[in-house]
Fold each of these.
Amino acid sequence: MATQDPVLYAVCDGEKARFLRFDGQQLRTFQRFGAHSGETDAIGEVGSIKQPRTDPHAQVKERFAREIAQEINQALQQDSALEGLVLSAPPHVLHDIREHLSKAVAKKLIKSESKDLTNTPDHDLMSHFDRPATGWPQMTP
C-alpha cells in the first residue's frame, strides 16, 4: 500500500477548489469545493444594497477565497499528520486565501504557485509542483 506524504495540496480559482494528497505515485483529489455548491455557498451574501458599486462576481470570488482558507485551516488543524501546505491559485485568489490563513497554518505553507491549475487532471499536476521545495524526495519517473 502506498504511503501519503504529509502535505496538503490545494488547487483553487475564484469558484472551484480541490484538496489533494500525494499517495506515493501521484496526486489524488480527496475533496472538492465550488462557489455555488451547498458546502461552500459563496453566493449567499452577494448583492448587498449597501455596496452598489461592488461587482457581485468579485464578491463571490472574495467570499469563496475566505471559505477555502477556512477549509484549509480546518484541514490542517484536524489532521496532525499534515505537516505542510502547497497552494496553487491565480494571483488575486492566492492573495485572498493567504490573507485568511491562520498564523499556525501560514507557518506550514511550503510553497505557493501563482497558477490556475483547477482544470488540470490529477495525473498531470505533479509536473507543476517542485517536489524538492516540499522537503520530501523527488518522484522518480
Amino acid sequence: MNVPWGDLGTVLMAALFLGGGVIVLYAVGIRVLSPASADGESAGRPTPLRIAITSLCFAICAAAVGYGIYTLL
C-alpha cells in the first residue's frame, strides 16, 4: 500500500485552516455584534458599521458551509 503522505498533509492543513477559519470568523461576527463594552457596561445598540461587519462575517460563513454542502452532492 502506497500512501501519498504529501497529499494527505495538504488535505489535513486545508481542513484545519479552513475549518478553524470558519469558526473563528463566526466568533468574530458574534463578538463584533456583542453590545458589551470593554469595561463591562452595556454599550446599547450596535452601530451600522458593526452590523455590516457582522453581516459580512456571517455571509462568508454561510457561503463556506453552502460550498461544502455543494461539493458533497
Amino acid sequence: MELKKLILTACCFCFFGFSVLAQAVKKVPALNEKLFIELSAKDSLLFDIAFKSCDLKQLESIFAPGFVFYHDRGYSVATSPQSLDDFKKNIKRSCENKSRERASMRREIVKGSLQVFEQGETRAIQTGVQRFYRTENGKAEKIVEESKFSRTWNKIKGNWLMVSELDYMVNTHPVSLLGELRYEPKPYAPESVELYQKIVSLDSAFFGAYNNCELDKMAAMMSDELEFYHDRGGLSTSKKQVLESIQKNICGKVTRILAKGSIEVYPIKDFGVVQIGYHSFRNIAEPGESEPSKFITLWRLKDGNWQATRIVSLH
C-alpha cells in the first residue's frame, strides 16, 4: 500500500503539479489497519485449529452459521460447494487421520498477498494467496497446493464472522514440488486438420461404444495385438480380457467424458497417428466426476481401416 502511494505521488507530481497531487492523494482510501489485523488473526486461528489444536469449538468465533465454502479447481472441473457442517467434518476427519497416518499439514500466506477491502461498516472482503505443505512419515516437506482465496466477512452483533469463501487453484504443479519451473508448450496446432477431425471422430465413436456397452463395436476398433497400459492396473496384452473387464466394471456404471479441446494428433510415418488428450469419468456410485487425466492412443491405419493398437491410461 505504501509503495502504491509513493508511485502515485511521483507520477502526479511529475505530470500534473502539486495542486493536482493534493487532490489525488485525498481520494486514496485509507487502510483500516485495525480491521486488517483482526481478520488476519482470525485467518491464523482458523488454520491453527485445522492443523494443530483441532479445537472445533473455536470455529464459532470465525464462521457465521450459514457459511459456505466454494472450491474452484479450474476450467474442467465444476466448482463444489461445502456447508459449514461438512467443512467441520472435514477438519475433524483430518485431525483423526493426522496421528494415524503420521502426516501433518502446514499452510502459509504468500508474503504481501493478504488484502482487506471494506464494503461499508458491516461487510469486508479478504483476499490472499496461500500454499499448503504436507509432511508424511518423516519425509521431506512437499508443497501440495497453491491457491487464491476470497472471503466475505459480515459484522454480526459486533463480531466479524466469515459468511463465504472461494478458493481458486492457482498452480496444480508448484515449482518447489518439481524442483524447477514446469515446461509450458506452445498452443497446439494440427499438422492436418482433416486428419485431426478423423481421429476426433474415431475417439467419439470408440468411447461412445464404451459408454453404451457396445462391445462388438469396440472390438472392431481394437487391434488383435492390442496393448493396454494402465498406471494402476498394469499391462494387459489380451484384447479379450480388456473387453471382459469393460463389461464387468464399466457397463452401466461408468461414463467417459472428453475434456473439450484437449485432443492432440501427431502423424506417424507409414503407421498411423498418436493421439493425446485428457478425459474424466463419472461413476454412478459416486458424486461428481474424476479429475481429468491424460490418455495416449496409437491408431494404426491398415487396408483403409483404423484400429487402436496401444492405449495408455494415466491418472
Amino acid sequence: MNAADDILGPSIAAGRGDSLALICGERSLSYTELDRLACRFGNAMLNAGAQRGQPILLLLDDGPELVAAYLGAMKAGLAAVALNTRMAVKDLAHAMGDSGAPLLLVEDDLAELAAEAASQTHTSPRRIASGGFDDFLAGASERLVSADMDAEDTALWMYTSGTTGQPKGAVHVHGSIALGERHVRENLGVEPGDRMFSTSKLFFAYPLGHCLIGGLRCGATLVLHRGWPDAAAAAEVIARTRPKVVLSVPSLYRLMLKDGVATSDAFRGVKTWVSAGENLPAELCRRWMEETGGLMLEGIGATEALFLFIASTPQAMKPGACGRPLPWAEAQLRSADGEPITTPDTAGDLWVRMDSLFRRYHNRPDVTQRVLRDGWWKTGDVFAFDTEGWWTPQGRSDDMIKVSGQWVSPSEVEEAALGVPGVADAVAVGIPNEDGLVRLVLYAVAEPGEHPPILETRIVETLRGKLAIFKCPRTVRFLDTIPRTATGKVQRFKLREGGI
C-alpha cells in the first residue's frame, strides 16, 4: 500500500484523471497532471539521495508544488513534513536538527530564514529554493512505481508545539490515510468535482486532513491561495472560484462579518462552512448562518489525530457546542487520577482513540509514553458533555493557550519578554474578547524609572523579532505586581478574569 495512491488512486482508477485536482490563481492541475508532477518530485528526491523512510522538510506556501512534493515524498517511500511558513528561526533550526532530514524544499522568500536556521543546528539539510525547482526536477521521470509500504510505515510527520513549547514531530503512518474521506464525504457531502477552499494553510492538520487527504481522495477540486489570507483575500477567492465547502477559523469568520463580505452572492453559494482550530462562539455561529444562508459545522481535531474526532454534522448541530464524538472515534473524559467520568456537566481530561492517531513523537519516547496509553491519547484538552450528549471545551489541562487555531506556550512568550530591558516580571494569558475569541495578553511589571508606553513599544518590537507572529501578544498591560500564591505560583485565573 501507499498513502499517495490512497489519495490520488480513486479518481484515476475511476477514469477521472482529466478532472481538476486543484486551482491556484491562474494555474490548475488535473488529477493525472498532479500525479505526474508528484512522480517527478518523488524521483528528484530519490535522485538527490533520500533514502526510504527519511523525512523531507517542505517550507512551502500553498500551491501545486507543495501538494505535488507532499504526495511525491510519500509515493517514493519518504515521509512528508510540511512546516509552518511563519515559524521562528529557532523552531526551524530545531526541526532541521531533530528530523535529520536530507532535504528542505523552501520558498525563495524564506531562503534567508532557512539559511539562518541552518547555521544554528548541527544537522543541516540540502536546501532547494522554489526558484530552482526546474533544475531540481530536470531529468526526473513522470513515472514512479509507488513504494510498497506496510500500514505501519511512516507516511508523514507534523510538528506540534506541545506543553513545553518546543516543536515535536508527530509521526503518522500509511494505514491512517483512508479514514480521511469519511467526514468530508459523509458529513460535508463532498462529491467528485466539488470545490473546497481552506483559509488555513496546508501545513495545519485541519486543512491537510480535510483537503489534501480527504478532499482529493473524494475527487474534489482544491482551491489554494498563496499568502496568508485576510478577510478581503478570502472573499476574493470565494467570489472567483465559488467553492461548495469552505474551511476557516472563528477569528477570520468574525473579520469577514465585520467587513460585510459575508452577505455576497458568492458566500450564499457555499453550502457548508466548517470551523475548527479554536472554540466557535454560539452567537458568531448563528450570525454567520443568518448572513450566508449556509450550514456552519464545528469540530475539533489535532495534529496528533490528523482528522476530526468530535464535530457537529448536518443531522446534529448546536451553536456553542463543539459537537459529538464521530463514528470513527472514541472519546472519553477522565478525572485527574485517571477514572472515567460518566456524569454530565463534569469537566475532565479528554482522551481519544481512533485509527489515525499518531504512533509516536520522533525522538521523544518520554512524552509519547505519557500521552499514549493502550491505544488512547491524552489530548491535553478539558471537555464536558451535557445531558443531551453535546461536548464543549473547557480549556487546557496545562497552561497552553490556543490563539487563532495555534497553540502558544506562555512560558516561551514570558521568557522572551523577560529578556527585554526594563521588564521586571511578565505573564502571558489567553483572554476572550467581546466575541468570545481568545487573544494573547501580556501582563508586565516595569522596572523603576521605565515609561510604560515606551517600554510597550520595546516589548512589541523585541517579541516580533524573536517569536513567530501568532505568538506575539495583541495587548500589553502593565501592573504594579503579578498576583501570586504564597508559594510563588502565578494566579493566572485572576488575570483571565480581570480581577486586578
